[in-house]
Design goal:
Length: 636
């Protein structure tokens, strides 16, 4: 059968041309690898209609601002740099960390939240809305300039004006504004400018911090934070919504089991009462016969005089105590005298705390309004549901779930005002820090190496091995034996242990990274940040190794190969590579090609007849199948 001609018909190619051949291809005139506004080859700007603009990437934000400003731009394509995952990517040196922390302290006062503009009864709705937009735009510009000029990394904050309007309403209605923060890093989720804004609206309003997830802290760690917030002069309470919900579930189970038991107890109690009535009647008659009929007047007078003396003593003591206590005005101006308790409050204790914390004039008559503000992932909705004993608010970790504030009566004189989850601007060191703190979604993480490197620098090697039951590859010869594991070493061991493999037979590092980072965010891998006045090594200590340490050489070959990406950098690999390159051919001065001389197996030279065929009487090597020859590549 003859070969097909070069111009023969091809059904697949014809179908492709029929579908895609009519669309003209875009070409750049100067053949340069550039993005440009003239080609419109970027994101479709007209589709940008996001409810929560924190989900917008920096590139999309740049395109939108370029479109609004009507400016042209050019950006180079294929600007790629290759990095070594073993170089501590994403980790800051000590000097870099100190410089960034100094910038954070110097620019702390510039980190603000948007204010609601002042208005009068004569102001129309259109004028107020326009003033709010202008103030909001100025606020966004100032934060953008702060990031550009000082080269500071900031958390992605809420850029939708409607969400901030809800916050303004909650602050205006509330008597006590409660910021709910994560116990593992409270200062990251605390907004000091929000506290200033609350006092600007009304000095009588009160600020408070509720440290959620406090069950992750020890008693001593809570004591450190209570002392720190005492110095800051702000009231603080420690609570755990997860523990409260578990207690409510246990109570519900016990109530279901109790009715059957109580019926049996009531029957037995009735029988015992019937038997004991006769005994009581007999004993009562005996007591009446034995008690004297009259009591002397002298004994009564003596008892009355003793009671009067004791009352006089108590009144004198109470007057002395009242003199020492501050007046209500002094209490408002000197709140720092009330020390914070480091006790982990239960649901009932927290409700009682909310009732008694505020004694001033309320926004709603005879009702104390508690405004709850916080990030979407600090457990704000879980706290409300635990206090209400039933699900009143939907729980979600993404901003924008709650569109408007809600008011929920906890009791007749206690009203909860739930604000939508707001991501407020805050300083962070790196983007990896935002991922590990739950600010950026893990499932949308593109580069896992910096985040896992930061995790490995915080959690010791033996804690990771004990938690996951894995063996992380030890440092190579010449490296620091006490260094932290790299992201590659942890993820290869974790992926092999869990069976997360790619199509090439290697452990899936990106999938393993998501599981490990989620364990860190959920608290399974626990790391708590210390207050500024306490050293981190003193504040948070890790448990000792519990599992027996296993040497890497004792593991199966298949697991050893999976624990490392093959690199010929060890001394053993270098020696084998060097000696394997030695030639075993015979060398004679002046000539190297001797067809009638060959090298025998014992190393001696054997002379053969040059006229004879060279392949005669020579033992041929046994040919192996390729699948056997390259079987070692398919071990894992």
């Amino acid at each position: 059968m003859s070969k097909k001609s070069k111009g023969g018909s091809n059904l697949g190619r014809t179908l492709i041309k029929d579908r895609f051949g009519h669309t003209p291809r875009r070409k750049v005139d100067n053949d340069t690898m550039l993005h440009t506004t003239e080609l419109q080859d970027g994101y479709d700007w007209g589709r940008l209609n996001l409810s929560s603009v924190t989900e917008e990437s920096s590139f999309q934000e740049f395109l939108r601002t370029a479109e609004l400003a009507g400016t042209e731009f050019q950006a180079e394509k294929l600007n790629i740099t290759f990095i070594n995952p073993k170089q501590g990517v994403g980790l800051l040196s000590r000097n870099e960390r100190l410089n960034i922390e100094k910038k954070h302290k110097d620019n702390k006062d510039l980190l603000k939240i948007p204010r609601r503009p002042k208005w009068a009864p004569e102001t129309t709705a259109e004028e107020l809305q326009q003033a709010e937009r202008d103030n909001f735009l100025d606020w966004r510009r100032n934060l953008a300039l702060l990031q550009e000029d000082e080269d500071i990394i900031m958390t992605p904050y809420e850029k939708n004006l409607e969400f901030w309007r809800q916050l303004w309403r909650v602050v205006e209605r509330s008597d006590v504004v409660v910021q709910i923060v994560d116990a593992r890093n409270p200062l990251l989720f605390r907004s000091e400018d929000l506290e200033k804004y609350v006092n600007e609206i009304n000095p009588q309003k009160m600020n408070m911090i509720l440290v959620n997830k406090s069950d992750l802290l020890t008693d001593q760690q809570r004591k450190y934070w209570a002392e720190y917030f005492d110095e800051q002069g702000i009231r603080t309470a420690f609570f755990s919504a997860s523990l409260a919900t578990e207690e409510l579930k246990e109570e519900a189970k016990n109530k279901e089991e109790k009715p059957a038991k109580t019926e049996l107890k009531e029957k037995k109690a009735k029988e015992n009462e019937e038997d004991s009535t006769q005994v009581h009647s007999d004993s009562h008659s005996d007591i009446e016969e034995n008690t004297p009929a009259d009591i002397s007047l002298k004994e009564l007078k003596e008892a009355a005089s003793l009671i009067n003396n004791n009352l006089d003593m108590l009144e004198a003591k109470l007057k002395q105590i009242e003199k020492k206590l501050p007046t209500p005005q002094e209490e408002k101006s000197e709140m720092h005298f009330i020390k914070n308790s480091h006790k982990l409050l239960t649901r009932e204790e927290l409700i009682e705390f909310f009732k008694t914390i505020y004694q001033g004039s309320t926004h709603t008559e005879n009702v104390t309004t508690i405004g709850l503000v916080g990030y979407p992932n600090v457990g704000k909705s879980s706290t409300i549901n635990a206090l209400m004993t039933e699900k009143k608010v939907s729980v979600s970790a993404t901003p924008g779930k709650t569109k408007h504030f809600q008011t929920l009566f906890l009791e007749k004189d206690l009203l909860l005002c739930d604000c939508p989850g707001l991501v407020m601007p805050s300083f962070v060191l790196t983007k990896a820090d935002m991922i590990l703190n739950g600010i950026l979604p893990i499932d949308q993480m593109r580069d896992h190496v910096p985040a896992v490197n930061l995790l490995c620098s915080r959690i010791p090697r033996h804690v990771l091995e004990d938690k996951y039951g894995i063996i992380i590859a030890k440092p190579l010869e010449g490296e620091d034996p006490d260094r932290c594991p790299h992201s590659e070493e942890l993820l290869l061991a974790y992926g092999y242990n869990r069976g997360f493999m790619t199509s090439n037979g290697q452990p899936d590092q990106s999938r393993s990274a998501r599981y490990v980072c989620k364990d860190y965010v959920n608290g399974k891998l626990l790391y708590c940040v210390a207050p500024p006045n306490v050293e981190q090594s003193v504040y948070h200590t890790f448990p000792e190794r519990t599992r027996k340490e296993v040497q890497e050489a004792s593991l199966p070959d298949q697991q050893q190969r999976a624990m490392r990406v093959k690199t010929n950098t060890s001394s053993k690999d270098l020696d084998s590579k060097f000696f394997a390159g030695q030639s075993s051919a015979a060398h004679v001065k002046g000539r190297a090609n001797f067809p009638h001389i060959r090298l025998a197996n014992d190393g001696s030279l054997v002379e053969t007849d040059p006229s004879a065929k060279p392949w005669r009487n020579v033992k041929k090597e046994r040919r192996e199948k390729l699948r056997k020859k390259f079987n070692h590549l398919d071990q894992h």
